[in-house]
Amino acid sequence: MIVDERITAYINSLSSELPPYLSNLEKEAHREEVPIIKKETQSLLQFLIAMRKPAHILEVGTAVGFSALFMSECMPENCDITTVEKVEMRLVKARVNLKSTKQADKIRLIEGDALDVLKELADKESERYDFIFMDAAKAQYMNYLPEVLKLLTVGGLLVTDNVLQDGTVAQSRYGITRRDRTIHTRMREYLYTLTHSDLLKTTILSVGDGVTLSIKE
Ligand SMILES: C[S@@+](CC[C@H](N)C(=O)[O-])C[C@H]1O[C@@H](n2cnc3c(N)ncnc32)[C@H](O)[C@@H]1O
Questions:
Q1: How does pLDDT run across 84-139, given as a tens digit for each residue?
Q2: What is the CATH number of the domain that holds 81?
Q3: Which annotated residues bind S-adenosyl-L-methionine (predicted)?
Q4: Residue 162 annotated as binding?
Q5: How far apart are CA 50 and CA 47, in angstroms?
Q6: N or C: lower Cβ tally within 10 Å for the chain?
């Protein structure tokens, strides 16, 4: 946790309640150790969607469908969501969860490796998104970025989760375990690219495990 635990608990105590089916899914994900968006990130996404009123949302990293369903609860009437996942164990649950909602016809689950799927989507003129939520394999974000930039409309918002890796990204590489060094290096490269790109205006927030907001200019 990047922000003091007590402050986070207090802020979260003020967040609005989830509909029962989402609250159950959240509890189930926690029980089964499926990494889903934290309360703080939920609140941020809800705010951003209300502010931006997107028409087409792309999510990279569905897991069991929690965040896609969460976004479907707060998106505008005419909005749709495309979400990408490749791990079968997660897909088994995502297929069921995403079908069993009143918004099912507005959520498209694409099964496959994110990089392949992003490339395929980027080749189609009809596949453009004004809100992209990146929440998949952290070490791959740099590889996803060129495709994501093609898929994002001018003025569109790219939200990337877990960019501070529980704060370890801010540490010297000598202060972290050898196992975490690759992800540390790649995430730093990703953050540097986002904050120094001529195409993007980016801010880094210490919400949850760290979130970046990038607008395509
Ligand atoms: C943090 S979880 C996503 C959580 C989800 N957004 C939520 O909050 O409910 C990341 C997901 O990305 C998936 N993932 C990892 N690498 C991937 C890849 N190369 N292609 C597609 N999905 C991938 C993982 O299987 C995992 O389910």
A1: 999 999 999 999 999 988 889 999 999 999 999 999 999 999 999 999 999 998 89
A2: 3.40.50.150
A3: 37, 67, 85, 113-114, 135
A4: yes
A5: 5
A6: C
**What's the CA-to-centroid distance between 137 and ligand 1, angstroms?**
6
pLDDT of residue 200: 98
Q: How many structural domains are present in the chain?
A: 1
Range of the structural domain that residue 206 is part of = 5-216
How confident is residue 204, by pLDDT bands cut at 50, 70 and 90?
A: very high
Nearest CA residue ID for atom 8, ligand 1: 36
pLDDT at 179: 74
The finding on whether 58 has its CB within 6 A of some atom of ligand 1 is no
Residues 69 and 151: their CA atoms lie apart, in Å, by: 22
Q: Is 135 annotated as a binding residue?
A: yes
Which of 86, 98, 109, 140 has most ligand 1 atoms within 8 Å of CB, for mutation? 86
Residue 84 near ligand 1, beta carbon < 6 Å: yes
3-state secondary structure 62-131: CCCCHHHHHHHHHCCCCCEEEEEECCHHHHHHHHHHHHCCCCHHHEEEEECCHHHHHHHHHCCCCCCEEE
Question: If you measure from the C-alpha of residue 172 to the centroid of ligand 1, how many angstroms do you get, rounded to a whole number?
Answer: 27
Tens-place pLDDT, residues 33-62: 999 999 999 999 999 999 999 999 999 999
Q: What is the DSSP letter of 209?
A: T
